[in-house]
């Protein structure tokens, strides 16, 4: 069993912990957190050994009556792999600690690409993470773009990708985020960072991305244009994408018109936390004309990277090949809606 | 003086009335409204003769103590041109009335293109409206796209336009509109109607448009990609667009990051109702690379078609050529920010 430590137990960390526990070949050694709050209490309730991420704050846990299993260094030492799910920039600060204990570490998309040996998307470049010490699981948007591009690149070749990302103003729990009643070019310059980030997965890809922020919290929504190298028609591309386990082509009959109904559908389907691990592609929008593909997809920012983190654990430990890992992850989590 | 009647006195009609009154060569004969509300009372306060648009509702005006100048047929008969600013679909119902009195009529973008002799955008096809009986001033989004395409087509040629339109959920006063906290592909199919609508102005243009609705009310926001036929660089295109009176390239120094600050700027500038008659193009976003232009622009849905309605009046009455009309309209309204 691969012993996995999780440093950070917020939006991503708590999901990674549940996903790792669900795998047949992994165990959660423990999770680390900086301060006690409702998530810390739930970690204890779920019997995840809880470690203090910052020594100076140990007494806060004592005051809150939360028992600690130890300090984060002990967690790192006891782990075969650490998944760092701390806020952007903190992962970079933690790097020397992981090196000290010689524990391979996975970072999240908010860290710089040059912090790590390899940026990772399971479908696109699983093999490159073999035996790496520092791996970055790319961000939710880059994951969503990479998953879509990979089968198109394999099957038809991609001349150019142009994507407009309508970004949620914040996660549902980020109550202080904006904008309110506004649409902000964000960033206001072109391209946004997402295109170059996709190039960490597909170095030679011609891709331009533009970002805007809007007053919505449920998902990001992408407006995608892909110029294909070889001819294709709409139905061929639909069938190709439907074969990918982490692409969910929403059937028209479900009448899911936006992020709200998509999330409601995920909750009704019994998904933990209402998570949508797949890219959710609106079937009606999927259109190919003159070798140009257009579609809309929703990206659930809190959860689409979770299966990727699980696969990255197997990739760095070389404990399974891509196909085997993705199938195991998907089976254990329940990726793919039962339609 | 051209005698102008305005049928409908809502979001567009009240702005057209003010804009026509501001012109040196036009007079407002009167405005017609279906029922009494705050806008009807303001029309009377502004000394616009008020006509009942529907005979059966005359008593509602009597009850509200609002004096009427007559019924809409009298207004149509007394007018050289009627501007129909009624809700989508009502203009089509009114067509026979305008024909009965042999009064040329201008309709708004919500009517079907095949209702009219010509769809109109001043910069792009002013001359085609000469002596027409039925002219449609295209919608706010189509106006915004046409104004941008016209100079690019003239100067560089356009191979293809790809635009994602992030649409406001409703006008500020449409308090019952949604979505709330959601991003809706709208329409969910590709292309949206905007591309074909631009083809009523540029019949041979290759254009694909995608639409989404978000919980914001202040403006539409367009993410634009234009493949140019002939080479250009960013600064050349910026200078070209800055020369167009109805394109406002927002200077970086103003630090206008979204629709909210744009509207605040318009209000601070003393614009009536805070209107932004121009396409507002974010200067920082304007980027040309490999002959592809990208930019973001805000389209103020309540007001960008107002100068176009005024020009359409001169176009159908053949009382001025394009250049003269646009200059007169812009001067009388105050189009162009004093920076």
UniProtKB/TrEMBL annotation, chains A, B:
Which residues participate directly in catalysis?
140
Where on this chain does D-glyceraldehyde 3-phosphate bind?
A: 139-141, 194-195
What does the record give as the reaction this protein catalyses? D-glyceraldehyde 3-phosphate + phosphate + NAD(+) = (2R)-3-phospho-glyceroyl phosphate + NADH + H(+); D-glyceraldehyde 3-phosphate + phosphate + NADP(+) = (2R)-3-phospho-glyceroyl phosphate + NADPH + H(+)
Keyword NADP annotated: yes
Where in the numbering of this chain does the Glyceraldehyde 3-phosphate dehydrogenase NAD(P) binding domain appear? 2-140
Which residues are listed for NAD(+) binding in this entry? 11-12, 110, 168, 301
Record carries keyword Oxidoreductase: yes
Task: Tell me the Gene Ontology biological-process terms attached to this UniProt entry.
Answer: glycolytic process
GO MF annotation: an example = NAD binding
State the pathway, as annotated in the record: Carbohydrate degradation; glycolysis; pyruvate from D-glyceraldehyde 3-phosphate: step 1/5
User: What is the protein's major site of localization?
Assistant: cytoplasm
Listed under GO cellular component are: cytoplasm
Can you tell me where the transmembrane regions are? none
- Cite the InterPro entries for this sequence: DapB_N, GlycerAld/Erythrose_P_DH, GlycerAld_3-P_DH_AS, GlycerAld_3-P_DH_cat, GlycerAld_3-P_DH_NAD(P)-bd, Glyceraldehyde-3-P_DH_2_arc, NAD(P)-bd_dom_sf
**Compartments where located:** Cytoplasm
Q: What class of enzyme is it?
A: oxidoreductase
Task: Give one Pfam family.
Answer: DapB_N
Similarity comment: family membership: Belongs to the glyceraldehyde-3-phosphate dehydrogenase family.
Write down what this protein is called. Answer: Glyceraldehyde-3-phosphate dehydrogenase
